[in-house]
Amino acid sequence: MKFGILGALPQEVALIKRCMTAHRSVVVGTRTFHEGEWGGRRIVLALSRVGKVSAALTTTLLLERFGVDRVIFTGVAGALDPRLRPGDVVIADRLLQHDMDARPIFPRFEVPLLNRSEFPAALAPEAEAAARAYIAGALEAEIPAERRAAFGIATPSVRRGLVISGDQFVGGAAQAAALRGLQPDALGVEMEGAAVAQVCHEMGGVPAAIVRVISDRADGSAAVDFQRFVDDIAEYLTGGIVRVMLER
Ligand code: ADE
């Protein structure tokens, strides 16, 4: 088994890149793929960059050029469920592109000619178990106390459900409320997961996990909260959960 590991920003995969054993790096176009091992598994780590096209390209290359047969995307998301706080973990078990709209030819959110608007992430149960194990076990030892304190992180909650993706940073209360109105079940919003899930679906049902840590509440302070979270703490949670997942 070979795992493709993806994150959108360098900060989100910094711990993985530092801690993995890399055997070689391969450049394809504007992407660099790091082949090696981590958590006792063969992995290929890549930075997807931001947005659905970037994520789709990187996922496709992982599958076609590097022969991965499992995909894990890890990173941060904005909360749409009002009970979620920064540091909480959201595991997507289905994903939807909230900016897909080919009406009146096709129903809103449906990906034309695929007859579906949601794409599954089959490794969600494994990802949820890993997140719970990481939080109960390694979190306290691995995240420096002052960083945990700065973000008020003690025992993050873990939720599994719908995550929505679009080529927009959601940084306003009205924008977030509109998305909640359209997708009341959505736990969080980000910019890549549904593209990764669609590619995995279309390439033969490759099992995928989309692991997201809440960085902000998609409101007026989202941009500031997001940047601080990404710069100061995201890598511990995103990397730690993936490591536990690989080790199991
Ligand atoms: N990723 C993290 N926070 C986000 C937000 N508010 N909107 C879109 N993607 C995000």
TrEMBL record:
GO terms for cellular component: cytosol. Residues 2-235 form the Nucleoside phosphorylase domain. Keywords: Amino-acid biosynthesis, Hydrolase, Methionine biosynthesis. One of its GO terms (biological process) is L-methionine salvage from S-adenosylmethionine. InterPro entries: MTA_SAH_Nsdase (IPR010049), Nucleoside_phosphorylase_d (IPR000845), Nucleoside_phosphorylase_sf (IPR035994). Its EC number is 3.2.2.9. It is an enzyme of class 3 (hydrolase). Pfam families: PNP_UDP_1. One of its GO terms (molecular function) is methylthioadenosine nucleosidase activity. Pathway: Amino-acid biosynthesis; L-methionine biosynthesis via salvage pathway; S-methyl-5-thio-alpha-D-ribose 1-phosphate from S-methyl-5'-thioadenosine (hydrolase route): step 1/2. NCBIfam families: MTA_SAH-Nsdase, PRK05584.1. This is adenosylhomocysteine nucleosidase. It comes from Termitidicoccus mucosus.
